[in-house]
Each structure stands twice: as C-alpha cells, then as structure tokens.
Amino acid sequence: MELLPRSPGEFGSTRYWDRFFRQRGQRPFEWYGAFPELCPVLHKYIRPRDKVLVVGCGNSELSEQMYDVGMCEDIVNIDISDAVIRQMQERSGSKRPKMSYLLMDMLQMDFPDAHFQVVLDKGTLDAILTDEEEATLAKVDKMFAEISRVLQVGGRYLCVSLAQTHVLKKAVEYFSQEGWIVRVHQVAGSGDKQQFVLPVFVYVMTKFRKIPGSALQILEICSEEQGKPMRVESMEQLVAAVKDRQHYALLCSQLSRVPCREQLSVDLCDRESGRPRYTLHVVDTPSVKPSRDNHFAIFIIPQGRETEWLFGMEEGRRQLAASAGFGRLITVALHREQHYEGMASIQAELSGKVMELAPPGLPAWQQVPFLSVGGDIGVRTVWHRDSSPLSGEYVVEDVKGDGTCYFRRLIFLRNRNVVQSEARLLAPPPLPGQKKRRKDKKKPSPAEPPAAIDKSYLCCEHHKAMVAGLCLLWGPDPLPGDEAGTPLVVLVVGLGGGSLPLFIHEYFSQAHMTVVEIDPSMLEVATHWFGFSQDERMQVHVSDGLDYVDKLAAEAPSKYDAIMFDVDSKDLTVGMSCPPPAFVEKPFLQKVKTILKPEGVFILNLVCRDAWLKESVLATLREVFPLLYTRRIEGEVNEILFCQPSPNGRRDPTELGARAQALEGSLRQPGHPWDSSYMLADMLQAVKIL
Asked: Per-residue confidence at 140, pLDDT binned at 50, 70, 90?
C-alpha cells in the first residue's frame, strides 16, 4: 500500500491527503509525539476555557484525548481533506458535542480576527515546509499570517515539530520579527528509541503587539526535565541548542541498539552558565560476557586526575573498563568551574541521564553501580585564574593525587586536558576558606601561595628523559657541572611552571642556565606559584625563542653544552602541539647547531599526532644533526629527541644506560632527596638510534 508521497511537494496537495486517508482507513495517524509525551507541555499553555484551533488535524487522536481528559473542550479542527473531515465527524459525533471538524484551508480561513486563544499544529508546518523554494516560503508566510490574524493578543501558537534547521529558522525568524516571544520545548521521549529516534519539539509562539522600531527578541529553550526556560541571545544560538539535543538523541539511540566500537564522548552542561559540568566517555568491552551484575557501570574520575593516562587517554580508559569487568563503562570527568557536594549528589544528578546511555539488553531491574578511586570525588582547589594574550585563559590549581600527595598544576584552558606544568607540594594545602595561624598580625596576601614546592620532583616523564639525556655529555672526563669539571652551560626554551630548569639548577651545582620564555605572564606564574627564582646561575629572558636563537647564532657560536626545547604551540590546528613548526624548520635548526658546542646535545620534546608531519620533522633533524636518538614516553604522545652535531659520540643504548646510572649516582647528593621513580638508566636503555 502506497502511503508516502512521490515528492515532498505532495504534502501540500489536497488530492494526496484524500487518497492517503482513504487508503489508511480508520486507523489514527500520528505524525510524531503521542499524547502522554505532549501532555505536560500542552497543559502549560492550554487552559480549560480557551478556544483552540487545530490546523491540519488529520485523523490524529490528539484533539479527542485533550477533550476527554478535560484539558479543554472548545476545539475547532480543520483540514483540507474532505475524506478525513467526514471520517472524524463520524468518529467523534455526539461523543464530543463541543468539538467540531471543518473542511477548510488554513491559508484562507473563514474565522474572524482574534477568534482563538490557542492555535495547535502537530506536524503541519513540517509537512508544508519541505524545501526552501520561493513558492513554498510564500505558502508558509500565508499560513503564519493567517495564524497571527485569528489569534488574540496573548494567544499561543503551539507547533509540534521535528525542528529541522530550515523549519525552525523560518518560524523563529517570522514570529520574533513580529515581536512575539519564542520558546522551544523539547518533549520528553517515550523511551521507545526503536520506534522513533529523533526528538520532538514544541515551538511556543506567544503573540504580543509589535512595538514600532523595537528590535528586541525574546528567545528561549526549555527541556522538559529543566522546568525553567533558558534565555538565548540569537536565533543561531537557539538553532545550535536544538541541534545539540538532536545529536544527543541520535547518540542515545545508537548506543541502545548496538555495542559501541569506538569510544564516544558527550558533555553535559550546567543549564545556568552553559558551561560543561560533566564529560562522559562511553567505553564498551565486547570481550566481557554479560552476566547478572556486569552489564553497566559508571566510574567517577576524582577531580584533578582526569589528565592521567588511565582516565584521559583512549587506551587507558579501555584498560580501565576491561579491569572493571563491565560490558559498558561510562567514565565521568568533573569540571573545575563547577561545584560538587559529594558522590551522593553526583549520583542523584546523573542517574537519569546515564540511563539514557545504557547498553542494549540491560534488564529493567538492573541496579547500575557508581564506582570511583577510594570512593570519593577527589580534591581540586583553584588558587589563581587569569588570561594572557599569548597563552589565553589559564588556571593554577592544587589537586590530590593517588595516595596522600598533593600537586600544583598549571592548565591552559584552551587544552584543558593537558597539564602544562606540575609540581609536588611538600605539605597538603589548606582548604579554601581555612585560616592559617600566624604569629604576627600582618594579614596574608590574598594571592599568597598556600604551600611550599618540592623542587626535587619532576612530574613529567618527558622531563626525566630530558634530564637523563645530559649523560650524553659525559665522555672520559667528568660530567660538565660536576664539581671536578667545567661549568655546564644550558639553554632552555620554554619556562612553563619552571620545574625543568629548577631541577637542573638544584641538582647540577655548576650549571649556568639561560631560560627563554615568550609570555611574561608565565614568568610571574612560575615565580609566584611554583617556587621559581632567578640568581647568578639562572636568568630568564622574556623573548621569542626564535628571535633569541637568531641573535645568538650571529653573536655567540658554540656557546652551549645543552639546548632544551620544551615549548608548546599555540596553534591547535596543526597536528604538532610541541614545538611550534617554525622551531623544527631546517634554517632554524642549523642556527641551533651553530650555538651548540661540537660535543654538546640538543634535546627536543616532540609531541606530534600527524604521522606524515612527524616523519618530515625527523628527516629534517637527521639532515642537520648526524647523530639522533629517540625516546618514546610510554602511554603518552611525547617523544624526546637527543641530537648531536658530531657522529663520533655514537653509543649503544646499553652504554647510555650505564652512563645514566652513573649520572644518577652523582646527583644523589646529601641534603637533596632523590625520587625513587627517577630511573635515568631505564630512560636511556630504551632509546633508539635513528
């Protein structure tokens, strides 16, 4: 039986609809949105005494159900199909004496002006506005004009729609320009994702008298569970908000049907601020056989630990899900801009939402466990927030790590899942608002650093590898920087929180360091929050590293024993986030080689996800430096490259490991604690010669 039109244009044809309803017979046809789902929204805007006009009524049961539950009785239904009007008159008849069905074209209605308090449209606008041809848009303009004419001031046009972008834009544009209030409701779904995937919306257009010369637009969106509508500033924002909800519905439908082959993520936002409150990652483990209690679980990542490999990387989350033993695990990251009361409140807030992402076959009675590390949500205290023209918005925060240790971090918010710098604290920081006892009466500065920094700690594995690379300087003579040797002259480009130069300064007593940092804000952050300080052995120059090296190449060749690049790229569109591409171009690398001593080492932190670009960088480095070692950092994208200007110093990894072990022994000085995780020998035994 043919029930669909040959072309979308037939949706506006009287002939098509007569044929459609004759073939369908008495069976009600609901475009979308059954009465139980629509009722909560309609009940807000339709009063029992309202006179209601239903345009394009078809043989839907909506009017009958509204009448029967007592929502309202004075309902006039119109349609262009004579067949369906006669069918509906017979079906309702004497059962509903106050409700009528009339054969009428809504583009030319016979009703007087301001005759109704409500005009209800369930799918009719969607059926007419099938394209954006001139004739179609003219027809829609006539429809809107007639609806506007028959509605009283203060009346509501309720339009049930799938909110395709061109349909939503047309409706919002027309009525907002007329001075009407426009509100878009998302209708709560029936939960039957198999039957209908796309969410249903109700546009609520409230008629007001147009004020001449006024450009004020009142646009709002409201999800059924939210209650209070959220104001948006423009039609573009409203359309984007609707699209977000449509994409989420499609995601939920997909996840309810089949296991997810790739990890999917979704942000759940705070309705007041619009900022992300939770970031969810859905991880399916097909190897887990479903049993009574292992279908589905939620894992709350403690605050501040979302950047760790186990939680922040796809492979880490896959390992976490497999070890947890659930077929589907949803990891939940908490955002620093938000406040959380505790695990119980998070569970109450998320319970309804996460069930929308439940796996196929989840029993209705199944209790879904909420898991975490140690059963708490972690500790995060933001001490400082600012913005820099070069680095953008950034925060300095303290977080609790695994165990009893606390760490201070610098995070650039443009890449909030990457820790820019980290330092271990010597003592737990005070809680926000906690008062510290002071012997003097002087008030502490509001920006006073709340805890001392452990200068012996290197948080980053790539920093440990860079320090280990200094053993390449160790020949038959003692290592430069050893008390029996000559001074170790080092150039570091990229300060961040200052942990790398600070460590070298602390442990290499004869090291003389020049640090170049392009952003003056970072020098302030490192000094005030990360215990960094300058002296006669360590000086910072606020300058572009490219310009600084250019100047040195012309003035002071063969100056440095070691040059270290640990500088991030501000351009996130490039597949290489460290260093910026200009730092690995051949002419610049040749200048780096010029200022490096013949027996020196150039150490580069490379973070490149683009395989072709990475190979190109390595090829360029090989052209400039005859000897090139590489050290991959396990579980991270970072790769440390050790480049030397002379091939004569070539050594195999075993020899390098032995040298690193000797270096480590020389650095274990009295009064300088040495972290047991600094296995420099292991760092260099894993190098490869390129």
From this structure: very high
